[in-house]
Each structure stands twice: as structure tokens, then as C-alpha cells.
Specification:
This protein is mainly α. Helix content is 62%, strand content 5%. Helix 1 runs antiparallel to helix 4 and helix 1 packs parallel to helix 5. The protein is globular, with a radius of gyration of 17 Å.
Length: 169
């Protein structure tokens, strides 16, 4: 039995979601220490045309959850995108971690060649095999949003570095 797709995806999602959780904890403490409202950070952006921190976290968890589910051949759990506090974002990360940790290596068997269909039945429908989906679409999307969340906080003065981004591995 090959667990390649499981062992190359789930541990990465877990590592970076856990590090994102730690960084968000530091960000909330930073707002308290500097005596400003946490919403200043939650609504912060790198550019006016980019999503704010809270949306970056939501999208990162969306990709960890949806990519894992599709590769495992299970339904993608739906989440409301209504988090407005650090605590609510932490809950979302925890729910995502619980979901991906519930998946087993055997569910990923054959997923490297499984057809993944994104936006089925729409003009934006896209089909690809699981390996391409994970490495050329899912991981880049996930990593972009985790990195952007980190960059927003770093840009706003949170003292974090590469070790914080990488987390425990």
C-alpha cells in the first residue's frame, strides 16, 4: 500500500496550521501588550486590493481541508466564513486540524491518479489528477495564504521569524 499522497500532504498541512496558530496567539498578545484593538491586526492587509489577515487564515484552512478531503475521497466539510476574533480563528484552525487528523493513509490510496474536479458544471470547471492537484494547485494556494498571514503580522510589527513560520517538524 502506498501512502505517498498522505505522507506528503497531511504532515505539511498540520505543521503549518499549528505554526499559524502559534503566530496568531503571539499576535493577539502583541495587540494587548501594545494596547490596541485586535481588529487592527485582523483587518490588516499588505495592499488595499488584498484580503485581510482574517480572510487569509480562512482561506488557508479552506485549502488544507478541501485538498485533504478531495484526495481522501470524502466530502469537503463546509465552514462559515464569519470569524471576527483571534479566538474564532483559533477554533477554525482547530476544527481543520481535527478533520485532517481524522483522515487515514488508506483513504489516500490511489489519490495520485484520482481525477479531481474543481468548480464542476461551471465555466471555470477544471479537471486534474490528484498529484497535479496537490503539488501544482493545492500546496501553492495553501502556502500563499499562510505566508501572507505571516507577512501581514510581520509587517505590522509582530516579532516573528522563519522559525515561527516553520513551526515544529
Amino acid at each position: 500500500m502506498s501512502t505517498y499522497m498522505y505522507t506528503t500532504s497531511i504532515p505539511v498541512f498540520k505543521q503549518l496550521l499549528n505554526s499559524l496558530s502559534v503566530i496568531l496567539t503571539k499576535a493577539e498578545a502583541y495587540a494587548t501588550e501594545k494596547n490596541f484593538k485586535p481588529t487592527v491586526l485582523l483587518e490588516a492587509r499588505l495592499s488595499p486590493d488584498m484580503f485581510p489577515l482574517s480572510r487569509q487564515v480562512q482561506i488557508a484552512t479552506d485549502f488544507a481541508r478541501s485538498v485533504s478531503a478531495r484526495l481522501a475521497g470524502v466530502e469537503v466539510p463546509a465552514y462559515d466564513d464569519n470569524e471576527q476574533t483571534f479566538a474564532e480563528l483559533q477554533t477554525r484552525i482547530s476544527k481543520t486540524l481535527s478533520f485532517i487528523e481524522s483522515l487515514t493513509p488508506s483513504q489516500f490510496e490511489g489519490s495520485e491518479t484520482r481525477e479531481i474536479v474543481l468548480r464542476p458544471g461551471t465555466p471555470k470547471e477544471k479537471k486534474m489528477v490528484g498529484h497535479t492537484y496537490l503539488f501544482n494547485y493545492g500546496f501553492p494556494q495553501f502556502l500563499f495564504h499562510v505566508t501572507t498571514a505571516y507577512a501581514i503580522l510581520r509587517h505590522n510589527g509582530l516579532e516573528v521569524g522563519k522559525g515561527d513560520f516553520m513551526g515544529a517538524y
